[in-house]
Design a protein that fits this description.
The complex is a heterodimer. Chain A is mainly alpha-helical. Chain A contains twelve helices and no strands. The chains are: A mainly alpha, B mainly alpha.
Amino acid sequence: MMTTTLEREPAPKPQIDLKGPHLSAGRRLRNRLATVFMIGSLLVAAIPLAFVVIVVVSKGISVISADWFTKDIPDVASSTLATKFGATDVAPVIYGMAPAIVGTLLTTGLATLLAVPLGILGAVYLNEYGREKRFARMLRFFTDVMIGVPSVIMGVFLYAVWVVPRGVDGRSAVAGGLALACLMLPIVVRSTEEMLRLVPDHLREASFALGARTSRTTMTVVLPAALPGITSGCMLAIARAAGETAPLLLTIGSTRFLNARLSGVNTALSTQIFSNVTQPGGEPLAWGAALTLIALVLIFTLLARFVSSRFALQQS
Amino acid sequence: MTVSTTTTPQTNELAPTLRGGRRARADTGFQWMSLGAAVLVLAIRLGIVISMVSGAWPAFSKMGLSYFTENKIDQVNAVYGSQAYIYGTIVVSFIAVLFAVPVSIGIALFVTEVAPQRLKWWITTIMDLLASVPSVVFGLWGFLILRPHLNDIYNWIHDHVKSIPILKTVFGPSGGGNSFMTAGLIVALMITPIITSITREVFATVPRNDKDGALALGATRWEMIRGVVLPHSSGGITGAVMLGLGRAMGETIAIALVIGANPQIVANVFATGEAMPSVIVRNLPESSGDFQAALIGLGVVLMALTVVVNVAARLIVNRIERARGA
């Protein structure tokens, strides 16, 4: 159902003369109205969505320079206030976002390292061992339900079991990475299982006939065949995790300085957008961070699409 | 959205089961490892539920049922209620679904029934890419760009319906742009690409023969859509709407920025309000004691609501697939 729509034999279009004199005015009008509604709804959705992207690009591009990727985040609130109260010796603000870029990469990277191997192994169990067993069906059902659980819940979960017991030291890239991993896990399990299911059974049977056991068959036949599809699914999960704000807001804290370690408070692009929106003088930082984040997410999404359309097994 | 209804034989019955030797042990090891991963995946699920319920327990046990009858969290008087937050979440997701569903169905119909092949590819690709834009970016745009314009529109609407009995309450005075309506509209924009892509897949499963048959009988395109495409897809559309609703209820950041952080139960959609996810994300980091438990409790309620919606969606989709398969 996911991919069946992509390719379809171009069937010959039935030629019907809708403008014929036999068509009553009412029917013609209703048909016309329906078409107008369809095109109208496309415009209603497309215009604001396109507008979002255009505004982010035009406002964000002016902030981004070489400093953006190397400097710490400036204290815009105090320089704005100082200027407001007549201070003349305020140093010009240098816009930098390096700590947040590092933080996003760190948390997303950690989440990927945790969720992807575990998710793939879980999917291997579901499709190669469990199949229709009771436990497998239960796991599948819970995974489906879990995909729909809001991301903020993962943040609350990690906050309750990780941040609260550790007190002030609890907020760190580790906590953020764990929250994102919880979020990615069901997506990875589900998309990998879909891909494993697309591997034709005769490949497995051929391998069994050569005397290979299930483990060897899985490692040398099934997984390599499904690899592009699995890669693409994982990349989509990474893109989703990188853009998440709510779980990180609760788990990594906030800082303006670079912290490349897993421990200690950290920051991320998404949380910087959220906190700078309402901060005096923070708007340029928010737009710049939004552009950086969209670019990052878009790269992963486009890579995923490219890999899946080019190399992955397609459902026939 | 595919549901597991495979009927393939268990291939591992064919797998060689020769006993003994290092390789057999490696095979057993691999099986246990994958089973272990599956158990761990499930354990994390259960861990989330258990830890959240236990974190919320102080608030639940202290307030009892009044957790659901009290209006809002009042730290000064140590009253912890959830009604206003639940109300906010429901109103915002209802507005979002109300706007997003017709638009999504319109786009999906345009893509499957009207658009030429080339345009179809462009629309679906761009829609899929837009679905990946992080929600905080929508929140940023809504807060800084859209909100001021919406305030003018709200005032204009309110001025024009002032004398009509029910409408003057629903479209009441604007609260400065932050409102249930603003949050609902932004969430609608975010869930439109998601609902569109599912409905498009549902429409694509309508048999070509049925459509051609209707056209051959002289139906116009709209009559064909109404008589063939929509009845055939009604279940799938319901599933898509439910999944969209689940997404809308869990949306956090965009709502947190534009809803106004003012928990209240009012019929006026232009008034400020508060929703469950946004109150959690705004207050949890600085909270402690019973207040913290009450916020985690809101998380439990939110999780329960979304699980109910998602399970319902899945059951509907399952039933449709089974009916179609038979």
